[in-house]
Write the structure tokens for this entry.
Amino acid sequence: MSLLPPQITRAIEEFSKLPGIGPKSAERLTFHLLRSSKASPEGLGGALTGLKAELRYCTVCQMVTLQDMCSICSDPSRDHGTILVVENPLDVIAFERTSYRGTYHVLHGVLSPIDGMGPEQLRLHELIERCKKGNVQEVIVATNPNIEGEATASYIRQHLHGVIEQVTRLAHGLPMGADIEFADQVTLREALAGRRQLG
Amino acid sequence: MSLLPPQITRAIEEFSKLPGIGPKSAERLTFHLLRSSKASPEGLGGALTGLKAELRYCTVCQMVTLQDMCSICSDPSRDHGTILVVENPLDVIAFERTSYRGTYHVLHGVLSPIDGMGPEQLRLHELIERCKKGNVQEVIVATNPNIEGEATASYIRQHLHGVIEQVTRLAHGLPMGADIEFADQVTLREALAGRRQLG
């Protein structure tokens, strides 16, 4: 690789640090930026350099925002007695496409000892403090349905025991449009266990 | 998306301009950079902002370099009578892993009218001028074996007609480790047509 100028090698290295981008993709992306008329290294570079500037986390729900408090937390028409706990800011965007009108709490990750993510690395403390302040009727835990997500949900349930009566978890079951033939057994078991009266 | 601060939206947009990165991957990459301890937006951002600084193209072969002439073109031990024509700088790196000891010519693309790539967008003129200056015995066209690559090879052959006697193309055939059962018919036809005497 010593044939390539160091700034190209450096860009390739930085791209390789991203998840899902291997050395070959990193090379391809770097040379694409050098050649493309649509994308430019200065465009992406400038956007990334300024990414953290002025960026804050909402003091209530920890969502990324430009103010002290995000637009959801400062909206009096929302139901502030319900908190939906999510792993990351994109999950908030996803739930905002539904008819949910409560508030959120963004953990910025899940418990995952193998990745060095303990309770201190998450915004769990902030969630518990927020619940202790009162006026919260329900906490809906919406971490992803995998090992880390379940472990995080269980941690939250334990730590909110005696603080919040209603700590719920999103329903498990078949996703819309799924094909039962190809559904995994855990999903099918959950779908059976959570079956509901028709009509 | 108006829930997200504009600098995040901008980074997502810039990432989306890259090939193979859709809006979802762009979101994931942006938030990964905000959270990761290994990769940082400033690291990648800085590398990209400085990417084009001091970067030049070798006046002879058009390879990316920091000098007027790249290390291969300025190496007297190389065979300067042989030019291997490639699509991009990474192809040079690939051939440098072989025992090839001639020189290169980097086109920086292939003819592709649909992508707005005509002869003027490539370094084809430089190749023809270089050949006309003399002292070139063979031009090996090593564009990729696809429609655009073949069209580019054909363009080069036409324009070097009467200038260079020996304009060759890389052999087509089965790649090492291939499984004949799964080889496509064009490759098999080429492999048959290019068969060689054993031993």
In short: Residues 147-160 of chain B form the longest helix (14 residues). Residues 59 and 82 of chain B are 17 Å apart (CA to CA). The first strand of chain B starts at residue 56 and ends at 57. Chain B has a mean pLDDT of 90.
